[in-house]
Amino acid sequence: MEKPKEGLTAKDLGIANMEKPKEGLSDEDLGIALVDCILTNPPKESRKLGALIFEVEYQGKRYRLGVIGKEALESIKKHGYKDSNGRIHLRVPQTVLNEP
Predict the structure, then answer these.
(1) pLDDT digits over 18-76, tens only?
(2) Residue 30 lies in a domain
(3) CA dihedral over 30, 34, 35, 38, signed as positive or negative
(4) Would you give the distance in Å from CA 77 to the centre of its chain?
(5) DSSP result, 39-91
(6) Which helix (H) or strand (E) holds 34?
(7) Which of 18, 19, 61, 91 could form a disulfide with 79 if both were Cys (CB 3.0 to 4.6 A apart)?
């Protein structure tokens, strides 16, 4: 006499051939992957918005980037760096770059 199995398998439930779910979305999927920009001028303070406005260059084009709040500014500082030529690079989501 055959010993009964313990528990059900995917085959028992008829779902053995179901596709496994993906592992979630990446930053690239959401359009928030970080891009490397070069800071062209020191940031300016916006009186109306209470924000800092950074002017950056990305792929030969100039953009403006508004940063509101201490957490956002700390994130910009954390992901930025200075290269051997003394230029400041900021790594920011491409979606926040606005043409002037």
Answers:
(1) 555 567 877 767 767 788 999 999 999 988 778 889 999 999 999 998 888 888 888 88
(2) no
(3) positive
(4) 15
(5) EEEEEEEETTTTEEEEEEEETTEEEEEEE-SHHHHHHHHHH-EE-TTS-EEEE
(6) strand 34-46
(7) 91
- For residues 94 and 62, what is the distance between their CA atoms, to the nearest angstrom? 13
Q: Output DSSP code: residue 6.
A: S
State the residue range of the domain holding 62. Answer: 38-96
Greatest alpha-carbon span in the chain: 84
43 closest CA partner among 62, 70, 67 = 67
Asked if 91 and 79 touch (Cβ cutoff 8 Å), the reply is: yes
Q: How many domains does the chain have?
A: 1
